[in-house]
Automatic annotation (TrEMBL):
<keyword id="KW-1003">Cell membrane</keyword>
<feature type="transmembrane region" description="Helical">
    <location>
        <begin position="239"/>
        <end position="261"/>
    </location>
</feature>
<keyword id="KW-0812">Transmembrane</keyword>
<feature type="domain" description="G-protein coupled receptors family 1 profile">
    <location>
        <begin position="42"/>
        <end position="293"/>
    </location>
</feature>
<keyword id="KW-0675">Receptor</keyword>
<feature type="transmembrane region" description="Helical">
    <location>
        <begin position="103"/>
        <end position="121"/>
    </location>
</feature>
<dbReference type="InterPro" id="IPR017452">
    <property type="entry name" value="GPCR_Rhodpsn_7TM"/>
</dbReference>
<keyword id="KW-0297">G-protein coupled receptor</keyword>
<keyword id="KW-0325">Glycoprotein</keyword>
<dbReference type="GO" id="GO:0004984">
    <property type="term" value="F:olfactory receptor activity"/>
</dbReference>
<feature type="transmembrane region" description="Helical">
    <location>
        <begin position="24"/>
        <end position="50"/>
    </location>
</feature>
<keyword id="KW-1133">Transmembrane helix</keyword>
<keyword id="KW-0716">Sensory transduction</keyword>
<keyword id="KW-1015">Disulfide bond</keyword>
<dbReference type="InterPro" id="IPR000276">
    <property type="entry name" value="GPCR_Rhodpsn"/>
</dbReference>
<dbReference type="GO" id="GO:0005886">
    <property type="term" value="C:plasma membrane"/>
</dbReference>
<feature type="transmembrane region" description="Helical">
    <location>
        <begin position="273"/>
        <end position="295"/>
    </location>
</feature>
């Protein structure tokens, strides 16, 4: 039977980092704003390069495009509110707005997991089944896979919101976090949260471990296939094509797996340490991922350098014209 909502709470308050002294509020907000700005500029650059260069319209880069869009949306969902918490001392968020933020936090996090699954699938087919790669991962197929990932990712967050929203919230409205998430909200409910926490945990494990299981299988198969290559140079070239994706995937999965495993083996963290870890694995990858693309992906690096050179030539021409004028 659903719990009838007798909530007296009309808004929640995000504490951010609980132990942070007020004199550091300005510094923290400036750092978070810098992270947000770099995330927007870097990912927007990747999107711009994809949109303006037909040579990048390949399955792998379409996957990277999806990841850049998701990174921008996730950062925009979480960072502006916590920046205002420290910049303008505005930590309150309305009851409904908090659940909306919770939905999008989990939705974009789930979408990233499915996008990384596609990334591993791309490398698996390219190295283990190179002759079938162009026939399986066509532009239309990768578009269908991407749309499917965005649609399927809605299920788990929607279930969590539908089950958590009607709960009675009649005690504290303080969320010890930098943004609204399922655990942070439901621990404030004036009822036993077990019937709601267990399904949410199961869904989280499916979302995390499902793609991760295939990723481990795919890269294990890749290592076996590469090991069979006799030529050392060809072997290193094959491994280098996977390194970018492997770094991105590791940034997403390893910290999350560490946190879940630590909780299950009895390792406890203070609220500050736990929030710092969550913020690092939530907000660092969206900022770092585009830098990895540009530094380690040959085509994107080439296009970026070409754009910079074109911009430099235009600036030189303008300077020459100004001199003659």
């Amino acid at each position: 039977m659903p719990v009838e909502n007798h909530s007296s709470v009309t808004e929640f308050v995000l504490t951010g980092f609980p132990g942070l002294h007020q004199e550091y509020y300005g510094l923290v907000s400036a750092v978070l704003f810098f992270v947000y700005l770099i995330t927007l500029i870097a990912n927007a650059t990747v999107i711009f390069l994809f949109a303006t260069n037909h040579s990048l319209h390949k399955p792998m880069y379409f996957i990277i495009l999806n990841l850049s869009v998701c990174d921008i949306l996730f950062s925009t969902t979480t960072l502006p509110k916590i920046i205002s918490r420290y910049w303008f001392q505005s930590g309150s968020i309305s009851f409904t707005a908090c659940f909306i933020q919770m939905y999008f936090v989990h939705y974009f996090g789930t979408a990233v997991a499915y996008i990384l699954f596609q990334m591993a699938l791309d490398r698996y087919l390219a190295i283990c089944h190179p002759l079938r790669y162009s026939h399986i991962l066509t532009k239309s197929n990768i578009l269908i896979l991407s749309i499917t990932a965005w649609i399927i990712a809605k299920a788990s967050p929607l279930m969590m919101v539908i089950r958590a929203y009607p709960l009675p919230y009649c005690a504290s409205n303080i969320i010890t976090h930098c943004f609204c998430d399922h655990i942070g909200i439901t621990v404030l409910a004036c009822t036993d949260r077990t019937p709601y926490a267990i399904p949410a945990f199961v869904f989280a494990m499916v979302v995390l471990l499902g793609p991760l299981a295939f990723i481990i299988f795919s890269y294990g198969s890749i290592l076996i296939a590469v090991y069979k290559i006799a030529n050392v140079q060809s072997r290193m070239k094959s491994l280098s094509t996977c390194s970018t994706q492997l770094i991105i995937i590791s940034l997403y999965f390893l910290p999350r797996c560490f946190v879940y495993l630590a909780q299950n083996v009895g390792i406890t963290f203070s609220a500050d340490v736990r929030i710092v870890i969550i913020m690092l694995y939530s907000l660092a990858p969206p900022m770092i991922n585009p830098l990895i693309y540009c530094l380690r992906t040959r085509d994107i690096k080439h296009m970026l350098m070409k754009r910079c050179n074109d911009y430099k030539i235009v600036c030189d021409v303008i300077d020459i014209d100004s001199v003659y004028c």
